[in-house]
Specification:
Layout: E1 19-24, E2 38-39, E3 42-43, H1 44-52, E4 60-64, H2 67-75, E5 79-82, H3 90-101, E6 108-111, H4 121-133, E7 139-146, H5 149-152, E8 159-162, E9 168-172, E10 195-205, H6 206-214, H7 219-224, H8 228-233, E11 238-242, H9 254-263
Parallel strand pairs: 1-4, 1-6, 4-5, 7-11
Antiparallel strand pairs: 2-3, 6-10, 7-10, 8-9, 8-10
Length: 264
């Protein structure tokens, strides 16, 4: 059993004890078999694992539902567990991984997205600082500002609104908050509000993961297809901050693959 629990104010990545779980589902509506797609001769999941290994976590574990992914990860000397193929969300998959690994309830777990390799170290440090600053929160996460209407109205980019204490009020695929005057015939971004694009980097404890996996799927979660809304429906607090460094673009399309290969 791993105990990744203790931390103090001022911890660096090397001081803060945590584990990393990379959910790697084979099926993808936009890019089937995404974890196994090769970028510059290396499978995407291996790019993610190698990047996560640089974070100083006590363990880095892939949670998959596919024997092909498991075989590849093991063949390259990394840790992987098989999980149920029918999980509603990546967080449900990570909850099963935590159970398989025997992580205790106070273990901090970083949900590292397998299709977003090269997440800046500064942003991981920021999530750690966030959960330390807000011990009442069940989840720490990040966002980036949206500066154009195309992104704002893109349902594949999840939007977020927060209160004045950085707590999430709602997540949506719709452009929120709705600017009643400007959006009647939208031509430019409203200038008096920061629109927030949620970044899928999460830090939470195993005790939350257990409660999350045991809770019923929320109506709003099903409606928006956003797992974060289950946590809000449960009454848990999600604290979010603006990412200090630009997040890499996720790999969802052939164009994303080309972009990644040009940058790496």
């Amino acid at each position: 059993m791993n105990d990744a629990t203790s931390h103090t104010v001022g911890d660096t990545l090397a001081d803060f004890k945590f584990v990393v779980c990379i959910p790697a589902r084979y099926a993808s509506s936009r890019l089937p078999g995404k974890p196994l797609i090769e970028l510059k001769g290396k499978a995407l999941i291996l790019w993610a694992i190698e990047a996560a290994n640089q974070l100083g976590a006590e363990q880095v574990v892939v949670a998959t539902d596919d024997s092909r992914i498991k075989k590849l990860v093991e063949a390259n000397g990394h840790q992987v567990v098989m999980t149920d193929a029918d999980h509603q969300s990546g967080t449900d998959r990570i909850a099963e991984c935590a159970s398989i690994m025997g992580w205790n309830e106070q273990t901090w777990v970083l949900n590292y997205q397998g299709d977003e390799p090269n997440i800046p170290l500064a942003n991981v440090q920021q999530v750690i600082d966030l959960v330390k600053k807000h011990p009442e929160a069940s989840i720490g996460t990040l966002y980036q500002s949206i500066d154009n209407l195309t992104d704002l109205f893109n349902p594949n980019l999840v939007k977020l609104v927060t209160d004045d204490q950085q707590r999430a009020l709602y997540f949506s695929r719709a452009p929120i908050p709705w600017a009643q005057k400007e959006f009647r015939a939208p031509k430019s971004m409203p200038s008096d509000i920061v629109y927030k694009h949620h970044v899928g980097l999460y830090m939470y404890k195993v005790d939350f993961l257990k409660r999350f996996a045991a809770a019923p799927v929320a109506v709003l979660e099903q409606t928006e297809s956003l797992e974060q809304l289950r946590a809000l429906a449960m009454g848990d607090s999600i604290v979010a901050a603006p990412a200090v460094a630009p997040m890499p673009h996720g790999i969802d399309t052939a164009a994303d693959i080309e972009r990644f290969e040009n940058l790496n």
